[in-house]
Automatic annotation (TrEMBL):
It comes from Oryzias melastigma (Marine medaka). PANTHER family: L1 TRANSPOSABLE ELEMENT-RELATED. This is L1 transposable element RRM domain-containing protein. InterPro entries: L1_C (IPR042566), Transposase_22 (IPR004244). It comes from the Eukaryota.
């Protein structure tokens, strides 16, 4: 009887030891996971601090759009009794292009009022060369990627037209207007323009 009890206790103690070893392994695993999470939290806090610092820098860097009244300065203060309201302004992301010119990246502006945008585009075309602190400034309407691709399809034809000294313009959204002897012809399809040449 005593041998049976001893055997029974030994088997139970073995089970308890096995369970205890499993629990110790689980606790160790959880402890490692907690350490990893703490490390990630610290890294995220550092990243958040860096992002906040960068945002403050960009806000300060782009403040000249509002504070210095850049647009009225470029296009004439008399055209803007009140400066246009800029809803959002940011620099475009950098891209690596083989023929990229060195210089500042474009700044994208979103105006609160569409009339302001159209007025600025019209005035920039009328004024021609725009200079800010001795640097040439260009103002363009921002197009979607799909529309830009449609407009790029006309690039080979525009090169040929330039070589032949033929006047042309690329009209919105994507049509090529050619002027020959004072007569204008428009093409919505690059193939049609190619055939015309």
């Amino acid at each position: 009887m005593q041998a049976e009890l001893t055997s029974h206790f030994d088997s139970k103690i073995g089970e308890l030891q096995s369970t205890l070893i499993t629990m110790i392994g689980s606790i160790s695993n959880l402890s490692e996971q907690v350490s990893l999470m703490e490390q990630r939290i610290i890294e995220n806090q550092d990243n958040l601090t860096n992002i906040e610092t960068h945002v403050k820098f960009l806000e300060k860097e782009n403040s000249y759009l509002r504070e210095k009244r850049l647009i009225p300065h470029l296009l004439g203060d008399d055209n803007f009794p009140a400066p246009p309201v800029i809803e959002r302004a940011h620099r475009s992301p950098t891209t690596t292009r083989p023929n990229a010119k060195n210089g500042p990246r474009p700044i994208l502006l979103k105006f609160l009022n569409a009339k302001d945008k159209m007025k600025i585009l019209r005035l920039s075309r009328e004024k021609g060369d725009l200079l800010f602190e001795g640097v040439q400034v260009y103002i363009y309407q921002d197009y979607s990627a799909a529309l830009l691709e449609r407009r790029r399809l006309f690039d080979p034809i525009k090169i040929k037209l330039s070589e032949k000294n033929i006047q042309y313009s690329l009209r919105y959204p994507a049509s090529l207007r050619i002027s020959i002897d004072g007569k204008f012809t428009s093409f919505r399809c690059p193939k049609d323009a190619e055939v015309f040449l």
